[in-house]
Specification:
This protein has a 5-stranded mixed beta barrel. It is 40% helix and 19% strand.
Length: 283
């Protein structure tokens, strides 16, 4: 059920088509007090009346008018009120500063072929890299979120490499952190006015996942070790990994990237609400 006095937080929003050919909005809200989720439906007529900026992830909303459908266990919403607008992500200055931070890590790569490849690829795709999120819902789902997630992975790697420097190649480990999610610059779209993240259907018609893209990119350019790490970084096949880490006798470096990625996803700047105080990188 829903409560008209409860202030909900937007988790995710999407628009699809009904069997009748009209538009239908799917809105998931979270009650911060109980951490419970409420699934809402908005018909096309309601969508036409409401400003799309209402549905930005992290926005705080109050349900003004709705009915609860017990059969489908969802809330049919007809009116919403914006209580507090969420930050959409990094502003232009923050995006440029964060991008330069990322380039700074690229410049620490000693292997000339690898460093030049990374620098050229990132400069070629600079503008889209600066705005892309790292996910639609799960983590870093805001403007510039992919860069924040990438840098967190690199920083986690730097701290942990001190323990394993004799066993792991720093150039390979740091480059894998930098490249592991690069396919997301094509997999997602983000509206700079509303902050709403969605999937790019053109990408999904050509590629299986961002991991497949990153794997292919590295293989084509001769970085086979990094390609294999990207293939395994989701950990399990049912989580989207091309290599399941439950297999025996795998290289230790495959686990390394997976754990760095997981640390950032679980404990990093998970959503835009955590950016209110600004970015404060620690080296």
């Amino acid at each position: 059920m829903f409560d008209t006095e409860t202030i909900y937080e937007v988790v995710v929003f999407s628009i699809g088509d009904t069997k009748a050919g009209t538009k239908m909005g799917k809105l998931q809200l979270r009650d911060p007090k109980t951490d419970t989720l409420l699934n809402c439906i908005l018909w096309e007529e309601t969508l036409n009346r409401l400003d799309s900026k209402l549905f930005r992830t992290g926005n705080q909303l109050r349900i003004v008018s709705a009915t609860f459908n017990e059969k489908f266990n969802n809330c049919l919403v007809s009116a919403l009120e914006l209580v507090k607008e969420a930050k959409m992500g990094l502003d232009e200055t923050q995006r440029e500063e964060t991008y330069q931070k990322l380039v700074g890590y690229i410049n620490t790569i000693q292997d000339d072929k690898l460093r030049i490849f990374l620098f050229n690829y990132f400069e070629e795709h600079k503008e889209v890299i600066k705005i892309m999120p790292a996910a639609k819902v799960m983590h870093h789902n805001y403007i510039g979120g992919l860069m924040v997630h990438t840098i967190e992975c690199v920083q986690f790697a730097e701290h942990n490499l001190k323990m394993f420097m004799m066993k792991l190649n720093r150039d390979v480990m740091i480059s894998a952190c930098i490249l592991h999610d690069i396919g997301k610059i094509f997999e997602y779209t983000i509206n700079l006015e509303t902050g709403i993240v969605d999937y790019d259907e053109n990408f999904r018609s050509e590629w299986i996942s961002h991991s497949q893209y990153g794997f292919s990119l590295c293989m084509m350019n001769g970085f086979k070790r990094i390609a294999k790490m990207i293939a395994a970084h989701h950990g399990r096949e049912d989580w989207g990994a091309m290599i399941d880490l439950d297999q025996k006798d795998l290289e230790p470096e495959l686990y390394f990237l997976h754990f760095m990625d997981n640390l950032s996803a679980k404990f990093g700047r998970i959503n835009v609400a955590m950016l209110e105080g600004g970015l404060h990188w620690q080296d």
